[in-house]
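Forum: Protein Structure Q&A
Topic: Joint prediction for protein chains with partners

I've read a bunch of threads here and the consensus seems to be that you should model interacting components together rather than docking separate models afterwards. I'd like to see that in practice. Below is the full input, 687 residues plus whatever partners are listed. Could one of the regulars post the assembled result?
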Amino acid sequence: MSGGLGDADDREWRRLDPRTVLVRVALFGGVLVGAALPVAFGLAGDRPLWQAFAWVAAAAALALGVAVVAETVRFRRTRYRVGPDRVELHTGLLVVQRRSLARERVRSADLSANPLQRVFGLVKVRVGTGEHSGGESPLELDLVTRAEGERLRRELLARSAGPSGTPDGDDTLAALDPRWIRFAPVSFLVPALGGAAIGAVMQVSEWFGAQGKVIHWIGDRFQDVSLAWMIVDLVLLAAVTGAVGALGLWVEMWWNYRLEREPGGTLRVARGLLTTRSVSLEERRLRGVELVQPLGVRLCGAARVDAVATGLAQNDGDEHADLKNLLPAVERAVADRVAAQVLREPEPPTAAPLTVHPRAARTRRLRRALWAALAPVVVLAVLGLLLTPVLLYVAAGCAVVLAPIAVLFALDAYRGLGHAVSGAYLVTRSGSLRRATVALQRSGVIGWTVRQSYFQRRAGLLTLTATTAAGTGAYDILDAGENEGLTFAAGAVPDLLAPFLETKPVRGEREACAKRVTDAP
Amino acid sequence: MTGENAVRLRPPRNAVDERAVTWWRWQLLVATAVPVAVLTVLGAFIGPARSWLLLAAVAVAAPGLACAAFLPVWWFRVHRWEVTDDAVYVRTGALRQEWRIAPMSRIQTVDTVRGPLEQYLRLATVTVTTASSKGAIRIEGLDHELAAGLAERLTLLTRATPGDAT
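Posted by a regular:
Agreed with the consensus. Here's the joint model:
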C-alpha cells in the first residue's frame, strides 16, 4: 500500500454516495413506524395509551440509532473500482466481503430507483455475469448518483464495439403509446388483484377485530336483494377493483417505456413511473423472442414480447421487474414489428405462416379435455347414486356446463398448434390460456429430444423438443405429425437429427408386408 | 424427404449391458419391498387394522413384483445408445419413449456415477450435460470399464470440437 502504485490504486477506488446512509435509514424508519403502530395499539390494551407509545417510541429510537451507526459503518467500508479487467466491490458490516468479477464476463448492468431514491437522485446498480446459479448474488452498488450509475452502465457494457455495433439511424425500437393501456384490464392480473383487495380488507379488519362488523355491514348493504345478486355484485366490485389496480400497476410499470438499441449491441428497456428501471440485454446473448398472448390479451388481438436470452436471471427478487419482458401487451402487428426489429430481421418470424398439425392432434386434445371435464361429473354421479339423488342433478349441470367449455378450449388449443422455419429462426406455437409463439435461432438449438407416448405412437404423432441454452432451456413442438415433424427437425438444424433418421416402408407397403407374412403358411 | 418417403428415428447402435436388467430389477424390488415391509410390520402390531394393512401390502406388492418381472426386460429392449463423432444419441422409455440427441460441440460436462448396487454389478451411469438446463442425457447400465472409456472418449471429442457450447 506504499509508493506510487498504491496511491494510484487508492484513487481508482470509489465510494458510494454519502446520501445512501440517509436514504437507507429513512427507509428503515418507514418500516419501523409501520411495525411500531400495531405494536403500540396492541400494548395499549392493558396500560395507558401514552405509556405504550412511550415504550414503543423508545425502542424505535434505539433501533433507528443502531441503524444509523450500522449504515454509516457499511458506507465507510464499502468501496468499488472498475479496473481494466476486473470490477471489484468491498463491503460488509462485520465480515468484509470482497467481490470481484472479470469484466469480460459482465453481462448486465441494470439500474433501478424507487421514489425515495429518486428524490435524492440516486440509483441502485446491479452488475450481473449472466450465471444461472442461484445463491451467488450479483455485484450490487447500493446506492450511487444517477450520473455515476449511467457512467458505470456505459463503461461496463461498452465492449470493443463489436461487429454488431452498426449505427441504425433511429435507435429507438419502441416507445410508450398511452393507448396500450387498454390492454391492461384484460390481463390475468385483474382477478388476482381483485382477490387480493378482498383479502386485504378482511385482513386489516381482522387486525382491528372488526371482521365480523365488516361482514355484517356488507350484509346490510345487500339486505333487499337475493343472495345470487349479492354474489354477482361482489364479484363485479372485485373485478372493478382489480381492473383499477391493473391500470395503476400498468402505469407504474410502463410509464416512460422505451426500448432502445445502444451502440455495442445492447438492447435497453427503460421504464417506470415511481420506481424507474433500466434493464440491458446484450444482443449476442439473444437467441430469439417469445410472443406471449394470455387469453384475455389474445381475444383483444394483442401480444407482449419477451426475450429468449441466455443467462437472464429468472427473477431478481424485485417485484414485477420481469427482466425478459421487452414490450408490454400491444397490438399484434406492433408486437410483430418490434420482434422483427429486435432480431434484426426484415420480416417478423413470429408472423410467419405455420405448418398445421395433423387432425389426430385435435382428437387428442378433444379426448383429453373431455376426460378432464367428465372426471368430476363421474365422481359426482357415483356419489349421487350411492348417497343422494341431488348430486345427480349437480352432475348433470356440471356436464352441461363443463363439456362445451372443454371442447372450446380443446379446439382453440389445436388451432394454436403450429411450427415453421422462417429465415434463421425456428418458430413454434402452442397454448390456449397462454398462447406463446417462440422464434428461436436455429443456430441456438443445442439438441433435440423426441418423445412419443403409446397413444401418440398409435396416432402417428410425436412431440419434438428443441433444447437451448436460453430462456426456459427447451421449447416444444407438441403433437407434430411423425413423418413431417422429424423431417422438419432435421431440416431446421442441419446435421443434428438427420444422421439418425432412416426411411421406413410406407404404411401401405408395410401392411402388405405384414399381410404376406401372415398369409405365409 | 417429404411425402411418400416416410422417415423414423433409427434405433441407436449399442444395447446397454445385460447386467442392467438385474440392476433395474433390484431397484424395483427394493422400491416395492420397503413400503410392503412397513405395511406388514404395522399390520403385525396394530390388531384392529390388520386386515386392511395387509391388504394394502398385497396391493402394493402385486404390481411391484409384476413391474420387477416385466419392466426391466422391456427397458432392456428399448434402452439403446450411440456415440458418433458428432453427437450423442440415446433412446429410453417403455410406454413413453424418448430419443435424445446432443451434438458434440455443445457438450459441457461428462460425469460418471456408480451407486453401491452399480459398483457391485460393475455398472456405471454416464451423464452428459449441455448448456441447456433441460438437455442432459443419461446413459444407464453401462459396463463400468466401457463407461470409463466412453467418458474419456467423450471428453477428448468435446475438447477437439470447436464451439462455445451455447
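The interface with chain B takes residues 132, 310, 444, 446-454, 457, 465, 467-469, 472-474, 482-484, 486-487, 490-491, 495-497, 499-507 of chain A (CB under 8 Å).
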